[in-house]
Specification:
Blueprint: H1 2-17, E1 27-33, E2 44-48, E3 51-54, E4 62-69, E5 72-77, H2 87-94, E6 99-106, E7 109-115, E8 121-130
Antiparallel strand pairs: 1-2, 1-8, 2-3, 3-4, 4-5, 5-6, 6-7, 7-8
Length: 131
């Protein structure tokens, strides 16, 4: 009886501590949106360390990847903003910065949800690493 108890504790602890490595590794990725967001513009990007660069869009913008927690990150633009927002407007917009939440992964496919805040989802889909 004790043996079964210890085995069940080990199995539960093992599943609890199982760690999926869902990090974005260096390389090229394409974004595939879920069906309800299929009208969003398709794009690809390249990861190089802590930097993400769009590679097939009009602007080819470059971002720094800022980790928020283990399964979430935010993209910070490396370009200087050319807008004329007041300090008050900048403070308001910085309060609700969108972020990506990794929900699952399977080999070279990383499933994500882009959130505006904890309760509002902007879009979802998957990042597929290309060879």
């Amino acid at each position: 009886m004790k043996k079964i108890f210890y085995i069940s504790i080990l199995l539960c602890f093992g599943f609890k501590c199982a760690d999926y490595n869902c990090d974005l590794k260096d390389g090229k990725y394409k974004v595939i949106y879920d069906d309800q967001f299929s009208n969003y513009p398709k794009f690809e990007f390249k990861i190089d360390g802590q930097y993400l660069t769009e590679i097939n869009s009009d602007s080819n913008r470059k971002f720094k990847i800022e980790s928020i927690k283990k399964s979430a990150f935010r993209l910070k633009s490396l370009e200087n903003p050319s807008d004329s927002l007041t300090e008050f407007q900048k403070a308001l917009t910085s309060n609700g910065q969108p972020y990506y939440e990794i929900t699952n992964c399977n080999k070279d496919t990383i499933y994500f949800i882009m959130r505006v805040n904890l309760h509002i989802i902007s879009h979802s889909g998957k990042f597929v690493r290309m060879k």
